[in-house]
C-alpha cells in the first residue's frame, strides 16, 4: 500500500505538487548469505478528499496520460504521484538507502508521469501491486520504461492470476507473500519462476523457520525481521569477542579509569585492533598517529568507546562490512532514532538522549545472546526506566521504541495514534528522523560518531 502525507489536501485546484509532501520509511531485504542487499521503501499518504471535479479525476485515473494535455490542470492523484517521485529523489531518501537499491510500489499515475524517468535506473525497482489496473495502455508504458532500463517487480504474489500472467513477461523480480501463499503451491510456483529466470523475494518473514523454509525452496532475497528475533540455534552470529564486549560494557558502566580500561582491553587483541583503527580515523584526528593503547583510549573517550562497544555486540561473527550487516544496522538505526526523537520532546537533556540511545541499541539484544531478554538486560545493569521501556513499553522511552518499531513496519496508522502521546512529534517528523538515523547507521567510516568498518 502506498501512502503520502499531504500538507494541504483540500487545495487541489491550481495547486502543484510542491504543496504535497511524501513520508518514507524503509524495510531491509537480505540476500541468501543474510546480508543487506536492498530496501523496500514504504510511503505514506491519507486518502485524497472528494472534490467537485471527481468525475474528471476518475477519467484521469483511467487515462493518466490525459493530464499531460496542454492547458489541462493535473488531477489530485497525479499531483500525489509527482510528490512521491519528487520525494524519492530527495537526499534524505538517498542517504537512507546507503548504496543499496530501493524497491518502491508505483501507481498507474506514477508510471505515466514522465518525471518518473528522473529516478536512476540502477537504484530503483518498480513494484507493481496485484490490484493495479492492467490494460493495453499500461503494458505499452511498461514496455517503454523497460526499454529505458527500468526494472519491474511483481509484488505480493500469492497465486497466479490474470494480472500476474499479463505482467510476468515484463518483471525481473517476483515478490511472493510467504505468509499468505499456499504452502502446497510454493514448491511448484518457485520452481517454475526460477526456471523462467525470475529473481524471487520471500515477503513477510518474521520467524527463522520461515526464512529457512524459503531458503531451502531457492528464494534469492528475503524480507522481514526474522534476523532480529531471539533464536534457539547457537550457530548464528557467533563472534569470538562477544563476551569480551559484554565484560567491557560492564566495566564502562562503572566510570573506569584509563588504567582499568587499558587492562581490560589488553585481554582482547581484536578489540585493541578495532580501537586503534577508531582512534586513527579522520573523525578523531589528533594531529599525529596514535601508536599506544593508552593514547587510543584518551583520543577516543569512554563515551565513544561505550557506543562503539554496544554496536559491536551486533556485528556478525564473519568478516562482514558493517553497512551490510542487517542486525547491526537495525540496532544502530533504532538507537540513533531514539536519540534524535527524544531531543525533540520538551525537557529532554543529555541524560535523556543517552538513555534513549541505550534503549534502542539494547531493545533486541536477546537476538544476539538468546535466552531471556530480561536476564540479559540485568547483566548489562541498565537503569529501571530503560528496562521498563524495553520490557513493558513504559514511559516515554517505551513510547518511542513502539514508534520506531511501527516505522520499521510502515504501520502509519499506529504512528498516527502514538503521535497524540508524543507531541510535538508528528508522523512526518518521525519519518524524517528515521531516514536520518538510517543514513547515520549506514555510513561505515563514521568513527567520530562511534561506528566504523571492521575487517578482521
TrEMBL record:
PROSITE patterns reported in the protein's UniProt record: HDOD (PS51833)
The HDOD domain, residue ranges: 238-428
EC class: hydrolase
InterPro entries in UniProt: dGMP_Pdiesterase_EAL/HD-GYP (IPR014408), EAL_sf (IPR035919), HDOD (IPR013976), RNase_Y/CdgJ (IPR052340)
GO MF annotations in UniProt: cyclic-guanylate-specific phosphodiesterase activity
Enzyme Commission designation: 3.1.4.52
Keywords in alphabetical order: Hydrolase
Region described as Disordered: 53-72
Repressor listed as a keyword: no
Skewed-composition ranges (Low complexity): 53-68
One Pfam match: HDOD
The protein's name: Cyclic di-GMP phosphodiesterase CdgJ
Lineage: Bacteria, Pseudomonadati, Pseudomonadota, Betaproteobacteria, Burkholderiales
Name of the coding gene: cdgJ_2
